[in-house]
Every structure is written in C-alpha cells, then in structure tokens.
From TrEMBL:
<dbReference type="InterPro" id="IPR015422">
    <property type="entry name" value="PyrdxlP-dep_Trfase_small"/>
</dbReference>
<comment type="similarity">
    <text>Belongs to the class-I pyridoxal-phosphate-dependent aminotransferase family.</text>
</comment>
<keyword id="KW-0663">Pyridoxal phosphate</keyword>
<dbReference type="InterPro" id="IPR004839">
    <property type="entry name" value="Aminotransferase_I/II_large"/>
</dbReference>
<protein>
    <submittedName>
        <fullName>Aspartate/tyrosine/aromatic aminotransferase</fullName>
    </submittedName>
</protein>
<dbReference type="Pfam" id="PF00155">
    <property type="entry name" value="Aminotran_1_2"/>
</dbReference>
<feature type="domain" description="Aminotransferase class I/classII large">
    <location>
        <begin position="27"/>
        <end position="385"/>
    </location>
</feature>
<dbReference type="InterPro" id="IPR015421">
    <property type="entry name" value="PyrdxlP-dep_Trfase_major"/>
</dbReference>
<dbReference type="InterPro" id="IPR000796">
    <property type="entry name" value="Asp_trans"/>
</dbReference>
<dbReference type="InterPro" id="IPR015424">
    <property type="entry name" value="PyrdxlP-dep_Trfase"/>
</dbReference>
<keyword id="KW-0808">Transferase</keyword>
<comment type="subunit">
    <text>Homodimer.</text>
</comment>
<dbReference type="GO" id="GO:0008483">
    <property type="term" value="F:transaminase activity"/>
</dbReference>
<keyword id="KW-0032">Aminotransferase</keyword>
Length: 390
C-alpha cells in the first residue's frame, strides 16, 4: 500500500542539521537552523531555566494529565509580557501548544473553522508557514514582504489588503522576521493596524522571537498596536528561542475577542483540535517557564540572559555591517535588521560553494543565523562570502 504514497523531499532546513553534523572539518560554520549560540558557539540551557528545572524536580508531585490546554499557569503568566500589563484580561484566553509550530497550527485551524478561506502572507516567510496553511487546507495568497532595497514593503501589504475579503486571515510576523530580519517599523504598524480593521480581516500574529530584537516590550509593539484596534486577533507564541527551550517544544496559542462567548468558542475549538492532534502538550518546558515567571529573581535572571543574547547578536550585526560591501552584497542593512536571521542575495551555486569549499552551512534561501557567527569565525565567513561572490 505504501507504494501509493508520493515520495516526500526531506525538510531542507532540518536536513542541514544532519549535513553539518556529518562534516568532519574543524572550522565548519553552522548558520542553518535557528538556534542561538554564545560567543563560543554553544547553545546552553538558560541559568534561570536550570534553576526552575531544579525546583520542578523538588516540587513536582505528579505527572498526571493536565488536559488539552496544558499548563494554564504558564499560559496566563505570559500574558502580561505578550499583551502588556494593562491589557483587558477578559478579552484574551489561551492554551499551551507544542512549540510555535503547534501554536501556528492551532491558530490556522481555528481561523479555518471560523470561516476563513484564504490567508495572506508576505514572502519570503518561514517555510513551515506555507506547509501548515496547505496541510490545514486554506488558500495561500502571498505578497512581497521586502522591498528591493531591503525595507519592509508596506505598499505590497496595502495592495494585498486592498484585494483581501472580509474574513480572510492575514499572517504577520510580530518581530524578528524569519527569514529576512526585516521588520515593519512602529510607524508602519501604526498604519497597518487600522487597515486590518477597515478591511475586516482576521490578524494572526506569529510572535516566535520576542526579546531577541529590541527587547520584550519593544518587540511586542506591532502586536499591541493591532490589539488596540482589532476586535479579534489570533496569536501564535513560541518560548523556544527566548527561553532557549527548543527541543522541549514550548508555545502558546491565544485568541482575543471582544465577546465572551466567541472567546469560549475559539478556545473550545482549539481544545478539540489539540485533542485530535497531540491530545495534550508536553509539560516540562512550560512548567519551567511558569516557575521562572512566578519568581521575581528568576524572572530578572531570565531577562538579563535574554539581554546578553540580544547584545551579542547586535555585536555580530555591527561587525557584518562594518564590512559595508562584500562582492555585490550591501552589508549595512544587516546592522539594522533584527533577531536571529538575515537573508543574503546568494545564488544556489554560491550557497553550495560556501558549503563545499568553506564548510559554511546556511538555508537554501540564503538565510543565515546571525548567532552562528563568533569573533573566531566571522572573518572567515566574510572572506568566504567575498570568494564565492567576487
Ligand atoms: C528556524 O526557522 O530555523 C526555526 O524556527 C526552526 C524550525 O522549526 O524551522
């Protein structure tokens, strides 16, 4: 029977992890999958998370099921960080999800059940967005996320919204755009939010990198602007990066409405989708996040660790920007982009040459993980870039 299955290509980004691991070169550089790395190339567990895990080991007295919405203490503890301290709590409810991917899946499924037939998305985007949209069965409509000179393309979004119909969903990256690092400015969000309302579309904000761009508060600007005007919003949240919990799969799905019954329906539908998909999300990482957020000292420690990450990525960006021009590539924009990623205008051949000739691994789109660069490999990277593009 399985011969009837269409062969599937392996996921290119996740495939890079294996290719990189199999490369015996000592000076290889991993700019592939989006994990933060320190100046020595490590991805350590946050100190605040280690402390929370120790506490969990001591205090957790049961591993009995929690239910499809997972650890609601975790879900609620995040709300002030995501939505703002003063946000009207009666308008928002959420549930835990397995990573940002689980949260995006829930959001798109709920949007479909609520009647959305199409979803608008700027491209390039995280490749899994389109895969999830296709798996859920919505029609994907795309527009360009970025202008030729490297800014967020507000005109393209406006043109897309002009064609959108009431009830369409619009997927926007809250911050640290993946894969380009090019975010809408605050002034652009100020224009986007009322337009979304005017067009009666359903905003779906994917916030997977809060705190890695300009800070926890600043990175929520766009989402909060939309929340201040739109009657209904869906949010897919990930703690994989900002708490360093990648493999523990820690995310949350939130719905915001102005009607209590509609909110209960959104959550009820989320719960049935979760039940039929993974039944209940994994507990450990979310419990650790909850323990961090319930403890002032651990919260301060976590925020300081997040500041360090952001500071290091800024330093790498500053060094890349200082290179000004590498072959045909203008490097200055990398200095003002945000988060883990930037995208270089490289051909497939150049990307392959970087891998084969220089041991430098990056996504086929030309996306690089900024955190893969350190003071000991950044010069080699710039030289290799020059060699393959020169
Ligand atoms: C990435 O974009 O590298 C990360 O979000 C990991 C993933 O799941 O693709």
């Amino acid at each position: 029977m399985f011969e009837n299955l269409a062969a599937q290509p392996a996921d290119a980004l996740l495939g890079l992890i294996k290719l990189y691991n199999a490369d015996p070169r000592g000076d290889k550089i991993d700019l592939g999958v989006g994990v933060y790395r320190t100046a020595t190339g490590a991805t350590p567990v946050f100190g605040a998370i280690k402390a929370a895990e120790a506490k969990l080991l001591e205090t957790q007295d049961s591993k009995a099921y929690l239910g499809p919405d997972g650890d609601m203490g975790f879900v609620n503890a995040l709300i002030p960080y995501v939505f703002g301290k003063d946000f009207d709590r009666s308008r928002v409810d959420g549930m835990q999800a397995p990573g940002g991917t689980g949260a995006v899946r829930l959001a798109i499924e709920v949007a479909k059940r609520a009647g959305a037939k199409r979803i608008w998305m700027g491209t390039p985007s995280w490749p899994n967005h389109a895969q999830i949209v296709s798996a859920v069965g919505l029609e994907l409509k795309t527009f360009s996320h970025m202008t030729a000179d490297g800014f967020a393309d507000l005109d393209a979004l406006k043109a897309a919204l002009a064609k959108a119909e009431p009830g369409d969903a619009v997927l926007l990256h809250g911050c640290c755009h993946n894969p380009t690092g090019v975010d809408f400015t605050e002034a652009q969000w100020d224009e986007i939010a009322p337009l979304l309302v005017e067009k009666q579309v359903l905003p779906l904000i994917d916030l997977a990198y809060q705190g890695l761009g300009a800070g926890m508060e600043a990175d929520a600007y766009g989402l909060r602007k939309v929340l201040s005007l739109a009657p209904e919003v869906l949010v897919a949240y990930s703690c994989d990066k900002n708490f360093g919990l990648y493999r523990d799969r820690v995310g949350a799905f939130y719905a915001v409405t102005s009607d209590a019954a509609a909110l209960a329906n959104a959550m009820g539908n989320g719960a049935t989708i979760a039940r039929a998909s993974w039944s209940m999300p994994p507990d450990h990482g979310a419990a650790a996040v909850r323990l961090v957020l319930e403890d002032e000292g651990l919260t301060a420690q976590w925020l300081a660790e997040l500041d360090d990450m952001r500071g290091r990525m800024r330093q790498v960006r500053d060094r890349l920007a200082a290179a000004q021009q590498v072959g045909p590539i203008a490097m200055a924009p990398l200095g003002v982009q945000n988060g883990l990623f930037s995208m270089l205008p490289l051909t497939g051949e150049q990307i392959l040459a970087l891998r084969n000739d220089h041991g430098i691994y990056m996504a086929g789109s030309g996306r690089i993980n900024i955190a893969g660069l350190t003071s000991s490999n950044i010069e080699k990277f710039i030289d290799a870039l020059q060699a393959v593009t020169g």
